[in-house]
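Morning, I've got a small favour to ask if you have a moment. It would help a lot if you went through both lines with me. Thanks so much in advance, here it is.

***
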Amino acid sequence: MTAQELLEQLNLLDENERIEAKAASMSNCPLRLDIQTDTLTASQGLKKLRDAGLSSNPEGLSRNLGGLSRDPNSLDKAETERKAVVRDALLAELPGELAARVGALGRRSPPDAVRDVVLELLRQRPWRLEELGHILQRNPEYVRQKYVQPLPEARRIRMTRPDVPNDPEQAYRAMETQP
């Protein structure tokens, strides 16, 4: 069965000769727009073309329109890359020794070691929980509960906006040590 016969059988096209060449290499969106049909019909037609070996676009996805990836981990990869860029930018702001200490922290570092690094970070400048989460590679809520929450009670850090504790821009800084 030729592509033209298949398209005629599916009742997708009125002008088969004009569109046959296009349909073999098209993805769903351009085909749907060109023949003014619904998504399901266009997808079914493209699937049959692909299965018959008549499509030069085996994925059936748009190369030009940024079609969805068939890789289920692609979104995770993009998010991981974005987090790495943010972390690198934050690390670049730090003095070398402190950046090395942060970089040396692993996922299973002792809580006291992480808390010491957090205190040292807060001595440099005020930090928001989101920033601390990025640089420590941990969930911001986990950072708050495990490392930050005990420190104000011990009078080691303070909020930058104590009047509005739930402010999204809330940051923390180390308290000045008294001689």
Summary: Confidence is low (pLDDT under 50) at residues 15-21, 58-67.
